[in-house]
Amino acid sequence: MNIIRLWPHEDYCCICDALVVGGDKGIPMYESIPVPPDWTGEWGGFCACEDCFQKYEAGELETW
């Protein structure tokens, strides 16, 4: 089976609201606030731009 992507996925970054085209990065969030990687509660993954994702990975974003 071949998958032909006619249109790349588009969404907005959950942190800075920048348009993300074809992105594959996400940040776990609960009630619109990023949660730390060791969070054991409920969460959902939201689209993130490369810069905000790197800030999250480096621990530079405020979390719960």
Describe the structure.
It is a single chain. This protein has one helix at residues 50-57; strands spanning 10-12, 19-21, 26-30, 33-34, 44-47. With 64 residues, the protein is α+β, with helices and mostly antiparallel strands. It contains one helix and five strands. It is elongated. The protein has one domain (10-57).
Question: How would you briefly describe this protein structure?
Answer:
With 64 residues, the chain is α+β, with helices and mostly antiparallel strands. The protein has one helix and five strands, in the order βββββα. The protein has one domain.
Key descriptive features of the protein:
single chain; 64 residues; alpha+beta; two-stranded antiparallel ribbon; 1 helix
What is the strand and helix layout of this fold?
Blueprint: E1 10-12, E2 19-21, E3 26-30, E4 33-34, E5 44-47, H1 50-57
- Largest sheet strand order: 4-3-5
Low-confidence stretches: none
> How many distinct beta strands?
5
Rg over CA atoms: 13 Å
Largest sheet: 3 strands, antiparallel
Query: What count of domains describes the coordinates?
Result: 1
How many helical stretches?
1
What is the string of helix and strand elements? EEEEEH
Structural class: alpha+beta
Q: What's the overall geometry? A: elongated
What is the terminal separation in angstroms?
43 Å
